[in-house]
Request: fold
Amino acid sequence: MCTISITLTGEDDEFRKLLCEDDFYQNVKMPGVFRKGGVDYYLDAIAFKCQDGKYFSGMANGISSKQQIKGYPFTPKSFTLNLDENCKVIKDDKFNEARKYYNI
Reply:
């Protein structure tokens, strides 16, 4: 597995304006980080693991893969949350660690 360690400062010069929408910016160092309306998000913050071992991103039990960044400096980190047989997020140590890092 390859781990990339990039620390972002959140400064305006780290972001470029996207033409598709007003007040929508993408980080130039980490393309999975966006700023919209002054709020910064990381798209790949959370992945979900089903009981059958399959993974997905998106939304589960009201929790999104996209998470708001709590503050800077920020080093993007992804977490895998386990789901129970009813597709509910299991609130285990992985969940608690992700909560410390993101506004879940």
User: Anything to note?
Assistant: The chain has a mean pLDDT of 93. The radius of gyration is 15 Å. Residues 12-101 form one domain.
